[in-house]
Amino acid sequence: MKVRLYTIPGSHPGVSVQLMLKHKGIEFKRTDLFPVISRGVVRILGFPGVTVPALKVDGLRVQGSRKIARELERLRPEPALFPSDPEKRAAVEEAERFGDEELQHPVRQIIWWALQRDKSPLRSYSEGARLGIPIGLAVRTAGPIIALEKRINEASDENVRADLAKFGGLLERVDKMIAAGTIGGDELNVADFQIAPSIRLAMTLQDLRPLIEARPAGQLAKRVQPQIAGDCPPILPPAWLEPLHSATAAAA
After folding, report:
1. What residues have CB less than 8 Å from 190, skipping those under 6 apart?
2. Domain coordinates of the chain in residue numbers?
């Protein structure tokens, strides 16, 4: 079986798929693409959409972390990504949906907003990337790409401030999923792999890290993804962080 994953450096859904592949014991090769440019590349490669992660398994092409998870489960049922019990599976699939549809994008918006304001941390996020050109050159020429990604992802001041205002509630939901045993159990499942990389990526921002790492959600993120590239110095306006500080204090 020949497996190749197309992703973007630092992409949290891309990390999700890598974790699933490793969980399954499936060997794969990874190709890192430039943000924005990736949209055209995956179409040229024959994928129906423009998004990554995109997985090619022999002649089969699958896009999106949730679709890929189900294809991996079909290709190699064990070790499983989903519980066999129908009720538990329903809870895990809902947690997976939450991670994909509700948690993932706010983190993406915050990251692109931060990198647009300060490009100096970009090299740290590119650590280990396989872009086909020297990392230094990629970083020096990344300004227009960052600006386009910020625009594509609607990472405006207004949206990022709203993301931070609701982020405490998102973390609380993850903490409750852990308490319920839906995620964070002895055997990791698809929802662990979907949720943890988003939280881990948020923790690369020094503004957010101390507000996350001591929570159950932060502990799970470090368990699932112990190592991560990226470190962004404080950059978020203090007023934008006040709701998250309040939510963290209430959860303590």
Report:
1. 20, 69, 81, 82, 92, 93, 96
2. 3-75, 86-251
Q: Are 177 and 206 in contact (CB under 8 A)?
A: no
Residue ranges of the alpha helices (H) in 130-237?
135-140, 143-152, 157-180, 190-202, 209-212, 216-224
C-alpha span between 47 and 52 (Å, rounded): 10
Question: Is 61 in a helix, a strand, or coil?
Answer: strand
Task: Say if domain 86-251 classifies as CATH 2.40.160.
Answer: no
User: What is the pLDDT tens value at each position of the chain, 252 positions in all?
Assistant: 899 999 998 899 999 999 999 999 999 999 999 888 899 999 999 999 999 999 999 989 999 999 999 999 999 999 999 999 999 999 999 999 999 999 999 999 999 999 999 999 988 988 877 776 666 767 777 788 889 999 999 999 999 999 999 999 999 999 999 999 999 999 999 999 999 999 999 999 999 999 999 999 999 999 999 999 999 999 999 999 999 999 988 887
Ramachandran class of 64: left when φ > 0, alpha when ψ lies in -120 to 50, beta otherwise: left
Q: Which CATH class is domain 3-75?
A: alpha beta
